[in-house]
Design a protein that fits this description.
Length: about 240
């Protein structure tokens, strides 16, 4: 159990709503992001691929299916979430897929109104991911990009799921429910997780006391961006593609 004097923080740079509005320029460097955590997910400048951060190492799945090990600490990101793993609850799951995570798992661990980080490792029977292709200005909305994103599948692959759970009430700042990425142990297959199933997975769950939301106030596109609040929630759900 979490000690009363230990405050854990999920650090998020940018907002998903801003990405939905087409604000895709990078506004934080990898170096500055890693000051706030060693583990997380995000995307690069121009929505260039899907980022997985494990133990301070940064990996980028790009739209041709390849995975890059990114060592350039000055590379910029428009949207990312990171944390420092601590006070972890060990997890063992059998016959697990998105249906199980969205249902029994959320209820059992009382996640409905909290932010949480999830890491799961093991042998996966099936994994399906999508990868955002790099965009050029003038940037489209994230929903337009999502409609044409390439998807990739892999069977009988060992790897890691990493990502976050967010309450429904925060569903414009970030993705409500699960936002998860996957990377294989050989670092050759990765992306935004759409589907998976596995017989047995182990890992850990971390519940956060605190959300630190960092705004890119020096970016004028962010400052002046227009978000269509009337369609925002539905558009985010469509672009995420994994919460059915």
């Amino acid at each position: 159990m979490k000690g009363n004097d230990l405050i854990s923080t999920l650090y998020e740079h940018g907002t998903l709503a801003s990405l939905m509005a087409g604000n895709m320029d990078g506004t934080i460097t990898v170096a500055d992001l890693l000051k706030h955590g060693s583990t997380g997910i995000g995307t690069f400048n121009g929505l260039d691929g899907e980022v997985i951060i494990l133990g301070g190492e940064v990996y980028q799945a790009v739209s041709d299916g390849h995975v890059n090990h990114v060592t350039d600490r000055q590379a910029k990101m428009p949207f990312a979430s990171v944390h420092t793993p601590e006070d972890l609850e060990k997890i063992e799951l059998s016959n697990v897929d998105f249906t199980a995570l969205n249902g029994d798992f959320v209820e059992k661990h009382a996640l409905k109104n909290v932010f949480a980080a999830l890491r799961l490792k093991g042998k996966f029977n099936h994994v399906k991911v999508r990868i955002a292709p790099k965009q050029e200005k003038p940037y489209p909305s994230l929903l337009e990009v999502a409609k044409g994103q390439p998807t990739f599948t892999n069977d009988n692959v060992a790897g890691t799921i990493i990502g976050y759970y967010a309450p429904e009430i925060f569903g414009s700042v970030t993705a409500a429910g699960w936002h998860l990425h996957f990377i294989s142990d050989d670092r050759q297959f990765a992306g935004h997780l759409l589907e998976f199933n596995a017989d047995q997975l182990t890992g850990d769950l971390q519940i956060f006391d605190n959300l630190q939301q960092h705004m890119p106030i020096n970016d004028q596109a962010f400052r002046q961006g227009e978000v269509d609040m009337g369609t925002l929630r539905d558009s985010i759900a469509q672009s995420e593609g994994n919460n059915d």
